[in-house]
Each structure stands twice: as structure tokens, then as C-alpha cells.
Amino acid sequence: MDARGLPEPHENASTVPPAPPMVATSRQRFALPSARTWIAGAQWLVTLATCAFLVVPVIMSIVAGLTVNYFRGIASGLTLRWLEEVWTQYHGSVFLSLEVAAATLAITLATGVPAGYALARSRTRVSRMIEELLVMPVALPGLASALALLVVYGGFSAFRMSAAFIVVGHVVFTLPFMVRPVAAICASSDLRTLEEGAASLGANFMQRFFTIVLPNARPGIVAGALAVLTLSIGEFNLTWMLHTPDTKTLPVGLADTYASLRIEVGSAYTILFFVMTMPLLVAMQWLGVDTSGANARSKRGVRARHHQDSQ
């Protein structure tokens, strides 16, 4: 009680003193980013700088192929003259590259798909040795592989002077990129189970291969096909060693244009090369192509762990 006989404010149990207003301090308003934010920002900065380092030269090369004079830049005006000149002189190389790539794809499909299936089904040491031998041309320089082909088959003049000689070299180089994705898919335990079920129903080997193996191995086949086409069109080292004046492919023609000491012509040829290969690269990215088979192996590992957990 106070002097006037009134109760003190704190004596009333039902009365709760109001909470003081929250006032944001200057440190709260202007808090520094966390260490994680700084690290993420640095990663983005490095990534963008790397992309610019790789992409800017390509863009400048494309622009050079569309300008009247490279040394004056865009100020000299834009033109399609160099593209027309390149197409007039090297359109034969374009069609030859497409023919070689198509022939290479057909041979790698006919040989690589059965080989990948056989290697996936075999667990012997010999099959592992064969797989390593198939990958060997990728580890060797293209010039070394070309020299080996010249030593063995160079004496057959008609074969040596034809585009078929280049196709053989491309098949040797690109076959591993067809075999490995197909083998990774065919090694799946699910595929083995489907085959065993079909065999129990009376399906022979050919029926199982065409109705079960090929449809289920389609992701690996598509991945290998796109990789083979892209590598065949862009292969230079091996092709340069094997080509003749009548069998110039796109990369060899590109080297010739740059040797002409006319930057605009070489850059225009780069545009043509870019137009042909970019759709394949986009398709590989869009379809999630994994030529090494790592994604397929990781998915099988996840399915195996899930099966073990369910048991």
C-alpha cells in the first residue's frame, strides 16, 4: 500500500508489465555475410571467370568471321562473304565428314553394342583384358594410332587413298565410347533378371537380345552414338595423318584455312564447324549423356542398397 492507501502496481498479480520495444541495433541492421556466403560468392566468381575465359575467344572468333576486316573489327561492317567463300571451297569436306561420321556410327553400332553386352556378361580375366585393349587407342596419341594403321595397311594403295581408311581410324578411336556406356547398362542386375525370366518362358538368345537387351540398353546406345558422331566429326590428329588431298574432312579443312593466313576465312570456317557440332553437344547435355557409364553404375549401386535395405 502506498501513502494514499492504493495498492502498489506490482502487488496486482494480474498485471503484467509491458515488454520493452525491440530496437534493432546497428550491428543487426548491417550484419556482415557469413563465411559460407563468402565462399559461395567466390565459387561463383571463379566459375564465371572460367566460363568467360573459355567462351569469349569463341565469340570473338565468330565475330571475326562475320566482319569485313578483322583488324578494324565490327566498325568495318558485317558480311557473309567469308562464309560463302568457305562453303564454296570446302563444302566437299562437310559432306565427307558427314559420310565418315555416319559410316563410323554404323560400324560402331554393329560391333560395339554386342561387344558391350558380351563384356558386361563375362566376368573372366580375359574379358577385362579385352576391355583394356579397346580403351588403349583413347590413351594413345592419335598420331601414334594413325602411324600404326599406316604401317599395317598403308601398302594397299586403293584402300589407303579412299575415305574408308579414315573410317577405320575413326572406328578404332571411337569404339570405346560405344562399348563402355552399353556395357554399363547391360551389367545391370535388373536386365539380367528380365533375361532369365524370358528364358524361363522359352525365349531363345536372339529373341531376348532384340526384345529385352536392346530396348533396355537404349540410353547407353544413344549416349554412345552421340559421342561417336561428335568425336568423328571433330577428330583432327588421326585424320590429318590418314587423309589425302581428296579426303579432307572438316578439321583438316579448318587447319588449311588457318594456314592461309586469312583470319576471316579461318573464323568463318569455325562458324561452319560450330553450326555442325553444337547441336550434337546440346543433345548430349539435354539427354544427360554419360560416356563413361559412371551414372549408370551409381544408379545400380543405389538400387542394390535399396534392395538390401528392403530385405
From TrEMBL:
One of its GO terms (biological process) is transmembrane transport. InterPro entries: MetI-like, MetI-like_sf. It comes from the Bacteria. Keywords: Cell inner membrane, Cell membrane, Membrane, Transmembrane, Transmembrane helix, Transport. Residues 1-20 are annotated as: Disordered. Residues 1-11 have a biased composition (Basic and acidic residues). It is a multi-pass membrane protein. It is found in: Cell inner membrane; Cell membrane. GO terms for cellular component: plasma membrane. Residues 94-284 form the ABC transmembrane type-1 domain. Gene3D superfamilies: MetI-like (1.10.3720.10). The chain crosses the membrane at residues 44-71, 91-120, 132-153, 159-179, 221-242, 268-289. It holds the Pfam family BPD_transp_1. Belongs to the binding-protein-dependent transport system permease family. This is ABC transporter permease subunit. It comes from Paraburkholderia pallida. The lineage of its organism: Bacteria, Pseudomonadati, Pseudomonadota, Betaproteobacteria, Burkholderiales.
